[in-house]
Write a structure and sequence with these properties.
3-stranded antiparallel beta sheet, Rossmann fold, alpha/beta, 9 helices, 6-stranded mixed beta sheet, 39% helix, 250 residues
Length: 250
Amino acid sequence: MATQTVIETRELSKYYGQQAAVDSLTLQVQEGEIFGFLGPNGAGKTTTILMLLGLTEPSKGEALVCGFNPTREPLKVKRLVGYLPEHVGFYRDMNARENLQYVARLNKIPHQTSSDKIDEALDTVGLSEDAERKVGTFSRGMTQRLGISEVLIKDPKICFLDEPTLGLDPDGAIRMIELIQSLSRDRKITMLICSHNLDQMQKISHRVGIMIKGKLVAVGPMEDLAKEKLGVDKEKYTLEQIYMKYFHEV
């Protein structure tokens, strides 16, 4: 069965003065894929996401998200895309449900449908029993899962997740990873994940892309990259080994 390309960039670039934050990025991501977007701090990952969301304009090149140009059609893109930043912000003196109701109003989701969407989203992330708790009492893991529920009430086709397991304890990280996998598998939501946790990305990513100094230096399934850079086929390898091989060659 043919897959649909939902994210596509062609020579996408962003310059700040003479400095290239993103340099001629050409990339395709398929529907339902978990795509690990890897690279050191300052590699251009977050800048890429901001361009895909229509929050900053590219210096040159083009991006398409579900067929829409985020620079010219940002509202159409935002209706189809969810974004979980590294540091999720909620009103701490409001409970979980109230925060989601506020988000639903901002997204102009009709009141008659938002209640059911909120209930479903809270159930999906395992926070139904905590819906009336003030967010200020939430752990980091609960706040991250509430961030996922905020994304889900929009019924997104794509989620951009920036370090979704950062600061979580092992149990919280496992729950988050399982949630990401289930959303990709069961709802066909495309997940583009920026993360420094290479072990987690090896476990869940269908493909990875490695950005270094603004350039995409590698993209593909991990077994293909391992064969290309490490010369291994069926032998054991780690994503860290692959990543470091590319990192030291740049």
